Amino acid sequence: MKPIRTAIIGFGKIAEDQHVPAIAGNPRFELAASVSRQGNGPAPNFISAEDLLASGLEFEAAAITTPPGPRFEIARLCIERGLHLLLEKPPCATLGEVEELRRLAAAKGTTLFTTWHAQHNGGVAAAKKLLAGQRLKSMRITWHENVHKWHPGQQWVFDAGGFGVFDPGINAFSVATAILPAPLFVREGTLYFPANAHTPIAAELSFTSPAADGPLSASFDWRKTDGEEWTILIETADGAHLKLLDGGARLQLNGDEVAASGIGEYPDLYATFADLIDRRESLVDAEPLRLVADSLLVSKREMVDAVTV
């Protein structure tokens, strides 16, 4: 079968570390080109998506790995050209943009895949299976890391539309919405904004769910300097304790390790992408982005010290 020639638009750290190896490791794909304003992507490299699309280069798909702000317009142009699209998380800056891309892709007959890489971690599918049909007694999400480690020099994360601490926190939302047996709704929260930022550096949130009889909460914080903590603790009504660790890579049930499965986050993303293209289907999941938007709508705002990245 002929490989799916794929361009990476927005070549940065995540593209270099994850997308390039995943494409190289999957015989269904072939890296056709890259787009980087710095000109540092794999050849042939283009300075803009418009230059790539005007080049006459033949390719069938694109992975858009830019920051969320410009992603909608790039994706719209790609869909017009009939390209199948894989969108890094978060898929767009707003819910309205996601819905419009969904409509455009359906009208054009192309595949649109809004990816949430954390959902493809080894422990997530097992946790979803264990929680199916269960009622929840409690859930506590802790997603703490150091912004200076993960976004060095990237001021855009604190600009309007940059998501702030929800840039990693949306990964937690993606896992929670994947494993819980019913939808999650934001009840209230407090967002902590640096004095010089338009997006929060920390958040404390509480939720409700039709499947829950007790407290559901999340703590996101970009100020942790002694390593990362990406955990979800869930107690079911019948007394089972589930603990997802390392962003979903590991799962414990009542303190015992559950064997993880799968081929890894990004290899699984591209395997799913190939399957969707073969079936001419899309997979558009906006629930994690909806939870970010709802958090911003209902939460209180507190100011904290200024931040530099």
TrEMBL record:
- Segment forming the signal sequence: none
Q: Which parts of the chain span the membrane according to its record? A: none
SUPFAM superfamilies, A to Z: NAD(P)-binding Rossmann-fold domains
- Tell me which residues make up the Gfo/Idh/MocA-like oxidoreductase N-terminal domain: 4-113
Q: What is this protein called?
A: Gfo/Idh/MocA family oxidoreductase
Instruction: Look up and give the organism this protein is from.
Output: Sphingomonas kaistensis
